[in-house]
TrEMBL record:
SUPFAM superfamilies: lambda repressor-like DNA-binding domains. It holds the Pfam family HTH_26. It comes from the Bacteria. InterPro entries: Cro/C1-type_HTH, Lambda_DNA-bd_dom_sf. This is Helix-turn-helix transcriptional regulator.
């Protein structure tokens, strides 16, 4: 399962989704889904814009989390 750390990153920086949306042009709903980890797909240009805006690497935003999903794939 892929975990998104957007909520932690924005919390540490005391930033709001509305602010990030306004400054990057990324749709608020897209950011909201990433923030709440309900997104099922994300465009690469959104990931790039977000990483550049936050000045982070992709690996700081997303992480593969081992768990039930991985075990099901292997079976």
């Amino acid at each position: 399962m892929i975990k998104c750390h957007l909520s932690r990153i924005l919390g540490e920086r005391k930033q709001k989704i509305a602010e990030v949306s306004r400054e990057t042009g990324i749709n608020r709903n897209t950011l909201h889904r990433l923030y709440n980890e309900t997104a099922t797909r994300v465009e690469l240009d959104v990931i790039e814009t977000l990483c550049r805006y936050l000045d982070i690497q992709i690996g700081e935003l997303f992480e593969i989390e081992e768990g039930d999903t991985q075990e099901k794939v292997e079976q």
